[in-house]
Amino acid sequence: MLFRVLIFLAVLLAGAIVGLALGGQWGAALGVIAASFTWFIADLLRGLRVERWLRRIDAGGDEGRFPAMSGLWGEIAERARRALRASDLRTVGAQTRLDEFLAAIQASPNGVTLLDAQGRIEWCNQTSADHLGFDAQRDAMQRVVNLVRDPGFVAYVQGSDHARDVVIPGRGSTPMSPRKVSVQLHAYGEGRRLLLSRDVTALEQAETMRRDFVANVSHEIRTPLTVLTGFVETLQNLPLDEAERARYLGLMSAQAHRMQALVSDLLVLSRLEGSPPPLVQEWTPARALLAGCEQEARGLCAALRKSQDLRFEADADLSVAVETLEWSGAMSNLVANAIRYTPNGGSIEVRWRVVYGGRAEFSVRDTGEGIAPEHVPRLTERFYRVDRSRSRETGGTGLGLAIVKHVAQRHGGELRIDSVVGVGSTFTLCLPATRVHTQVSAPVVDASTPTPAA
Ligand code: ADP
């Protein structure tokens, strides 16, 4: 600053000297005025250059034409440039952090929508758009209640109690395939609100299944228990002769067995659900599995006084890597169903064979009553029966096919059901190629060795 004052004084002095030389005392005074005016104009022009440069930057232009100059204005321009650069760096850093933050929210499996004090959408992530049917760009600054018109949602947003969430139908929900979304509002900032959404379709389905399952189990157990209690009371209160007593005790025993079968199937299911998939380590010849199954089937036929044509056949060189107890149980279940649902004189064909791609199939084909197409997809649901009384009559629990499907899936395979009413049904258990061995050198086990069933 002192330097600038000195220069200014030097300019005035130079003007005075030149004026003095040219016009004496008055010339010196005019020289000082001319010098200060020149100084003022030069200073003004330099200041204007800096001001124009700052104005251009302020208008969003680049700082390309920096007014390089010395002196105070140069110093001001240089300092302004440095301050701008530092501010730019801070802005870029903040923008990067904001972008990363938004990218993290975008990646969230939960929907996030930011609402302003008027309930308008300021920003939402893609998940939220997907849950609630927004278009992240098009719907910005739209009132959320104009976009999501579910009455429960509108009442929730307009109400004051947001301590709990509310479950509403999600985008694309139909009565056939309902989609449920849980939404909850959280206040933040000045009157702003955060709307969090979560797809709870699977959770709701699991909860419905759990409720249905408990209701079904209770119902299945209550029926034989009621019958049993009735018989016990009859035995206690009525003077019955020996033949009647024996008949009642026989009926009671049948009900007790029914409950036993149900509990045993429930235990099998819970064991299957709670254990890891079987490893591929031990190879069992398909013929050995089939032999055990055949022995059981013939025993069941005799017990049920059924007379069907039973045929059992397996590829000689086929070995499979299965959890034998589980798999044999599933095989026996399918064969038992075929025996139960095929009238006398019908035929049942049981086969183990290798199919295309190195996979193997265990199939049970019967010439029974068959199943109408609308029932087929539901047969593997727990407690689903085509004919409830018929199933009970034949000692069924309604859990058999659910268990079989579970066993197949645990082995990486599947259960296929083909059926034609009046013609018969084929139930096929498929095993993936990784669990199939077809070398003739596979160990051959005595076909009469019984294999335990689940
Ligand atoms: P259940 O213990 O009642 O037999 P499952 O789960 O084993 O239960 O079978 C479910 C239903 O599938 C049965 O109630 C029956 O209606 C039908 N079903 C199963 N196997 C056959 C078959 N081979 N032929 C006709 N219907 C069958």
Explained architecture:
A hairpin with a 3-residue loop joins strand 11 and strand 12. The chain has a five-stranded antiparallel sheet with strand order 2-1-5-4-3, sandwiched between helices. The protein has a five-stranded mixed sheet with strand order 7-9-10-12-11, covered by helices on one side. A three-stranded antiparallel sheet has the order 6-8-13. It has about 450 residues and is of the alpha+beta class. It is built from eleven helices and 13 strands. The longest helix has about 55 residues, at about 1-60. Bound molecules: adenosine-5'-diphosphate. Adenosine-5'-diphosphate binds near residues 338, 366, 368 and 396.
Broad structural category: alpha+beta
What is the helix/strand order?
HHEEHHHEEEHHEHEEHEEHHEEE
* CATH architect. name of the largest domain: 2-Layer Sandwich
* Integer tally of domains: 4
Any ligands, ions or cofactors bound here, and which? adenosine-5'-diphosphate
Rounded average pLDDT: 89
Radius of gyration from the alpha-carbon trace, in angstroms? 44 Å
**What is the terminal separation in angstroms?**
100 Å
Spatial ordering of strands, largest sheet: 2-1-5-4-3
The CATH homologous superfamily of the largest domain corresponds to Histidine kinase-like ATPase, C-terminal domain
Uncertain ranges:
441-454
The strand count comes to 13
Q: What is the share of helical residues? A: 40-55%
CATH topology of the largest domain: Heat Shock Protein 90
User: Number of helix segments?
Assistant: 11
Report the β-strand fraction as a percent range: 15-25%
